[in-house]
Amino acid sequence: MNLLLVAPLLVPLAGGVLALLVRSPSAERAIGVGSAFALLAVAVALFGVALEQGYATSQMGEWPVPFGITLVLDRLAATMLLVTAVLAVAVTLNALGGADTRGRHFHALVQFQLLGVNGAFLTGDLFNLFVFFEVLLIASYALLMHGARPERTVATVHVAVLNLLGSTLFLVAVGCIYAAAGSLNLADLAERAATLPADREGLWRAGAWLLVVVFALKAALLPLGFWLPTAYAAADGTVAALFAILTKVGVVAILRTGTLLFGDIGLEPVVLALAIATLALGAVGMMAARRLSQLAAYAVVLSVGTLLLAVSLSTRASIAAAVFYLMQGTVASAGLFLIAERVGLLRGASADRLVPATEIRGRLALPLAFLVTAVAIAGLPPFGGFIAKVALLDAAADAGRAAWVFPAILVTTLLAIVALARAGSILFWKSASGVGREEPAGRLAGAAAAALGIGTLLLATSPLVFYGGAAMEHAHATAAQLLDPAAYVRAVHAGDPTREAP
Amino acid sequence: MEALFAAALGLLVAAGVYLTLRPRLFSVLLGLTLLSYAVNLFLLASGGLLAGRLPLTDQPPPWPDPLPQALILTAIVISFGMTAFLIVLSLRAVAETGHDHVEGREEEGGR
Questions:
Q1: Which chain A positions have a beta carbon within 8 Å of B89's beta carbon?
Q2: DSSP letter for each residue of B10-27
Q3: Chain A residues near residue B74 by CB distance under 8 angstroms
Q4: What is the DSSP letter of A70?
Q5: Which of these, A115, A110, A84, A76, lies nearest to A95 by C-alpha position?
Q6: CB contact under 8 A, A175 and B45
Q7: Tell me: the pLDDT tens digits for A247-277?
Q8: pTM for this structure?
């Protein structure tokens, strides 16, 4: 059993339980921040392991391979763990500004959410994926309710009902796949899928498609994505920033099962068409948004569309573009939520609505942060989003899908730029009469916390700019690894504790 | 037995879907509960149906598959917890918005 591999689950679990047990808010904060930084350290260590060895696996309780719980670390999982840990640090630091006092147990819930997300990235077993989904979902409902307001309650009810239906479908899919192949371990399934008896083929395909539907619901792919904008825009800004990782869990699940198990069920054209529709909804939504947080929510939809477009082409170059965009897009959209929250706090009554209001005076940092984040989200040079989009267009041309992908990406990018430019100029340039609202005394902590949170995210994207070449190489290596399911199977079997030495 | 089992499952799913599509939170909750019962039965069927046999005993074969039963146990616990959470959430929504329409407000001309 590899303890380092279990650490991304143990750290948030211990942090969450401890944060629930302590009484004083400052102790809870210390645990939350400490646990987030510990998770970052673990994620960096695991990223190093993945770069060096390619794979690391762990069998819980030393059970032989198809049985027991398998954890598999590969480059994709390591990358996502790192992105999650960066988000966790940014969100917990940002929450110190007061977001964590708007409701109870904020830090504990964040830790449980992280437990579910990390587990979903690491698990090598379909049923475990279901369990970790449920862990992250129950934490996300409670976080969505954080700082209760009636519209949040209604949004949470909708999300909870939808996801309960999703979980039901997930179990039906698990049942179909188990009945067809007789296993739920991903590596074992990958082996069995090749030698499936002909009469089980239909059951297998039904299960596969149902799973894709469930993951598409989590990823908010159209037509299953209408819940996202309302829910994310209603949530507290700090919480919404953390939720930026949730849709990516769905995307990664599609990517993982699509490359490992469902290579031949004809996924590509369907996901391609739906991803283009999702892109369109995201861009139009950004144009139509009336609040900055709403705009940020549609920016998440846009990034899901871009990602799944790249995934659906399923060539090595396009998956590399998707991996690069995963690193960049998640962090950037989380940053926009944090900025929206800060803008809302500073503008008082008009909050983050896109109407001219009192000027935000004497603050250069916030408009600058918005500029950088907006450019990063729109995918303009010099940021990572640009590199990812160019790589995606390049891959699409090679895959012979240029006629579909070029207009979709270029038009939606233009719309996103227009929407972000409009929002920025209204928020920061067009001021109605009246002086800027002075920051009340004692709110300095809020500014510092927001600066820390947003700063962490901006800092995190900088390696993608300065070491873009190395990051792209990593993305290509990740894509190559994903497109070699046999290596995944070998790695899991090599981790079998009962295997005799060759 | 398979036919009876499948018919019962279909009935449960049909009732569950119908209730989930209703506009009141209470019916939605009942619908989700029925769906989760149906899915547990479905998981049981995924390991093959064998009447009157026990897994993991020293009976002679055929043995039923124990794994779906373990899956169902987990699924029951999770769906129970989720349903309990959703009931509390719905009660809160009713308290905050004043009624139990899923949209949080009565539709115009609605019942």
A1: 141, 145, 153, 156-157, 160
A2: HHHHHHHHHHHTSSBHHH
A3: 127, 131
A4: E
A5: A110
A6: yes
A7: 999 999 999 998 888 877 788 888 889 999 9
A8: 0.90
